[in-house]
Design a protein that fits this description.
Number of strands: 19
Number of domains: 1
Strand order of the largest sheet: 1-2-3-4-5-6-7-9-10-11-12-13-14-15-16-19
CATH superfamily: Porin
Distance between the termini: 38 Å
Structural class: mainly beta
Radius of gyration: 24 Å
Number of helices: 5
Strand content: over 45%
CATH architecture: Beta Barrel
Order of helices and strands: HHEHEEHEEHEEEEEEEEEEEEEE
CATH class: Mainly Beta
Largest sheet: 16 strands, antiparallel, barrel
Helix content: 10-25%
CATH topology: Porin
């Protein structure tokens, strides 16, 4: 332990002891490190009413809570030390997702993210995440408050959500950035799938991901800030449900999403496209979604979403068909209307009405009313929900 000359002088005349000075110095070091760490998170609760008597047999996190009840959806707690502007900056991010949503997603030890953040001074600087991190695909986030609606979309439900690996981000210019990474593990909305091993070697076939994001500059006038994101995730296979095969053939996810301002400052549009190819069973499904938001004032907004799901060419589509024998192809639609209001400080409140329709209503169709049994599927499902989120 090194001491400055003033501490040594005071110790020489008995004013302080070197032991107490060492302890004080260690305490100051800890406090200095903690001073750059932030704590954030949210508490998400909701009341949900489904007149059909169920959520259509979908996973609980699809709607965010169990049907016809008042529930805690999630408690999210994050510790973060972000990268500064130095060329060799370092930091970290640890985020726990507690409660029913984390359990339903199958996150190990409720860890949503836990990564070391690093920067290497190559060109404009490459920022790295090493550990567990959110996926690079999707219009919607696992964080409910970041989404325009309370319920999750079809697209979110078929996308990977979390990866364990390494991800690099390079901002080539103000208008373009690129992400690329490799991972051993991916967790999807309808269950987990992990990288398969090669024969009996124990070596993993990794998951690869990459994609650019384009942002319209100020010279685009009213369209400035518009974004276009394109991403691809190639998984080698899985070991626990979903898209598995004897050779671990895996699945590929292709995503494109756009956000677009309009000449009316209060009105914004968005669109998303997801395509999932389950290679080991040679089947696929895709989802197209449209979004709009009208911001009446700084507290009140109206958010709309419409989706079309085409799963006619798949034998397995997670929540979209009855899992078990006799998988049935399907297509479905949904329209969601959400009124959002911020009445209290740090609290976001929502009232949402959602309608889903399945074109196939035979055995194994999109909606099964679990209160009446598998043999009585539904063509339509409705949901009314109220949500409150406190963000800190």
């Amino acid at each position: 332990m090194k001491f400055n000359k003033w501490t040594l002088g005071l110790a020489a005349v008995g004013v302080v002891s070197l032991t107490s000075a060492a302890r004080a110095d260690e305490t100051n070091m800890v406090m200095t490190s903690l001073s750059t760490t932030t704590i954030s998170g949210y508490v998400d609760v909701a009341a949900q009413f489904n007149p059909n008597g169920s959520s259509g047999g979908l996973p609980s996190y699809y709607y965010g809570s169990n049907p016809n009840s008042i529930n805690l959806n999630a408690v999210d707690i994050a510790l973060d030390k972000p990268l500064d502007e130095s060329p060799w900056a370092s930091g970290y991010h640890v985020e726990f997702l507690l409660g029913p949503q984390g359990v339903a997603m199958g996150l190990p030890n409720n860890i949503r993210q836990a990564y070391i953040a690093l920067r290497t001074p190559v060109g404009n600087g490459i920022d790295w995440k090493i550990g567990v991190f959110d996926t690079i695909v999707g219009y919607e986030s696992t964080t409910s408050a970041s989404n325009p609606n309370y319920s999750k979309s079809y697209g979110y439900n078929m996308e990977p959500t979390t990866h364990t690996g390494i991800l690099g981000t390079y901002k080539a210019a103000d208008w373009i950035s690129v992400q690329a990474g490799i991972a051993d593990t991916s967790y999807a909305g309808d269950g987990g799938y992990t990288a398969a091993t090669v024969g009996g070697t124990g070596l993993y076939r990794p998951t690869f991901m990459w994609g650019p994001t384009l942002t319209a500059p100020d010279s685009f006038g009213w369209a400035k800030g518009a974004t276009l994101s394109i991403a691809t995730i190639i998984s080698s296979g899985n070991t626990e449900g979903g898209f598995r095969g004897p050779d671990g053939a895996g699945a590929s996810t292709y995503y494109a999403g756009i956000t677009l301002p309009t000449p009316v400052a209060a009105l914004k549009f968005g669109a998303a496209f997801d395509y999932l190819n389950a290679r080991d069973i040679s089947q696929n499904e895709w989802v197209g979604a449209l979004y709009s938001t009208y911001q009446f004032n700084d507290k009140l907004s109206l958010n709309l979403r419409g989706e079309y799901l085409d799963a006619k060419n798949t034998q397995y589509s997670g929540a979209y068909t009855q899992v078990g024998s006799g998988h049935t192809p399907n297509e479905a639609y949904e329209i969601t209307t959400t009124v959002q209001y911020a009445l209290w400080a740090n609290v976001l409140t929502r009232l949402e009405l959602r309608w889903d329709h399945s074109n196939h209503t035979g055995a194994g169709g999109y909606y099964n009313n679990i209160s009446t049994g598998v043999g009585k599927p539904l063509a339509d499902a409705f949901m009314l929900a109220a949500q409150a989120i406190y963000t800190f």
